[in-house]
Amino acid sequence: MELTELSLSHFRNYDDAKLTFQPGVNIFLGQNAQGKTNLLESIYALALARSHRTKIDKDLIQWGQSQARISGIIENRFGKTPLSLSWSNKGKQARVNHLDQSRLSTYIGQLNVILFAPEDLDLVKGPPAIRRRFIDIEFGQMNRTYLQLSSQYKRVLKDRNAYLKAWSFGGKKDAVFLSVLTDQLIELSVKLILLKQRFLKELEKAAARIHREVANQTEELTLHYKTAVDLQQVSTEEELLGALQAAFSKQSDREKKQGTTLVGPHRDDFTIEVNGVDVSNFGSQGQQRTAALALKLGEIDLMHQETGEYPVLLLDDVLSELDASRQTHLLMSIENKVQTFITAPSLSEVARSLIKEPKVFLVKDGTIQVETK
């Protein structure tokens, strides 16, 4: 999969820009606050219909303008597909092949991207919410069923939490209605947990292989899914359903007092271990960075396995965060494999020696020029 063209109109600090890319490595060079990351953000948004930097859509619209638009052409084994995404005071509009998409679940997955930025090091050492978001974003691109189930789950969870909150403040207390919401949430939880469990097992295989290579065969990476029930004690979907029903029943009184749902995939996590030790809490910074790198690179192969296409890789100023050895492994892993976009103020000697014939864009004050050789 490749992004061959990108057009921006009133997006962030860009009035109007049109770029064409090559299949290999494309590099945006420039000092800070010139617009490099905005370009990567536009590619990410074109893929996922959301920014990775803000939850407020109007932040993406250029100051003084009423709307913004991103469009691009992707090319995969099926041919070329135009995509576009626009924001205005009427909301967000996504199009595939110039046709409006009434649901974002039918839009997401047309262009698959993997973003690796300095903050992704928090994937290992950060709070559980970061790892839950990682699963939702990455697996949602690969699996439309997961994306739809996740959306349904969030809607039911929102309704259940609202009802529990009203209950806790002495509002209407209809045990039958709460039971209906609980049953709906449990049914969706079972399906999501099984999909997450499969995803993490497959990711572990890919990431463990890469981790061994980076660590010179001295360390073994494992991932452990943590949910409300002990998954080692359940072997069938029916057993998981029963275990979740028991878990919800156990927390019922606390939920009514606290006014929120205490059980379900929205509270799940996974641990990252190296040689049996949780690197989130006890690993060195080097081990944490190696684990984060292995997870991100493992995604590339997993996405290819799940979709039949390699994703587009976005590296936002991440090379400066990696030492020479990890830079080397990262750049050698992507060579002739995935289309890659890199932002950096400058390139290290390691990067220059390993990146063969990149297309370089010079970014300054919201203007872009192609570097001539």
UniProtKB/TrEMBL annotation:
<feature type="domain" description="RecF/RecN/SMC N-terminal">
    <location>
        <begin position="3"/>
        <end position="345"/>
    </location>
</feature>
<dbReference type="GO" id="GO:0009432">
    <property type="term" value="P:SOS response"/>
</dbReference>
<dbReference type="GO" id="GO:0006302">
    <property type="term" value="P:double-strand break repair"/>
</dbReference>
<keyword id="KW-0227">DNA damage</keyword>
<protein>
    <recommendedName>
        <fullName>DNA replication and repair protein RecF</fullName>
    </recommendedName>
</protein>
<keyword id="KW-0235">DNA replication</keyword>
<dbReference type="InterPro" id="IPR042174">
    <property type="entry name" value="RecF_2"/>
</dbReference>
<keyword id="KW-0238">DNA-binding</keyword>
<dbReference type="GO" id="GO:0003697">
    <property type="term" value="F:single-stranded DNA binding"/>
</dbReference>
<comment type="similarity">
    <text>Belongs to the RecF family.</text>
</comment>
<keyword id="KW-0963">Cytoplasm</keyword>
<keyword id="KW-0067">ATP-binding</keyword>
<comment type="function">
    <text>The RecF protein is involved in DNA metabolism; it is required for DNA replication and normal SOS inducibility. RecF binds preferentially to single-stranded, linear DNA. It also seems to bind ATP.</text>
</comment>
<dbReference type="GO" id="GO:0005524">
    <property type="term" value="F:ATP binding"/>
</dbReference>
<dbReference type="GO" id="GO:0005737">
    <property type="term" value="C:cytoplasm"/>
</dbReference>
<keyword id="KW-0742">SOS response</keyword>
<dbReference type="GO" id="GO:0000731">
    <property type="term" value="P:DNA synthesis involved in DNA repair"/>
</dbReference>
<keyword id="KW-0547">Nucleotide-binding</keyword>
<dbReference type="InterPro" id="IPR018078">
    <property type="entry name" value="DNA-binding_RecF_CS"/>
</dbReference>
<dbReference type="InterPro" id="IPR001238">
    <property type="entry name" value="DNA-binding_RecF"/>
</dbReference>
<dbReference type="Pfam" id="PF02463">
    <property type="entry name" value="SMC_N"/>
</dbReference>
<dbReference type="InterPro" id="IPR003395">
    <property type="entry name" value="RecF/RecN/SMC_N"/>
</dbReference>
<feature type="binding site">
    <location>
        <begin position="30"/>
        <end position="37"/>
    </location>
    <ligand>
        <name>ATP</name>
    </ligand>
</feature>
<dbReference type="GO" id="GO:0006260">
    <property type="term" value="P:DNA replication"/>
</dbReference>
<dbReference type="InterPro" id="IPR027417">
    <property type="entry name" value="P-loop_NTPase"/>
</dbReference>
<keyword id="KW-0234">DNA repair</keyword>
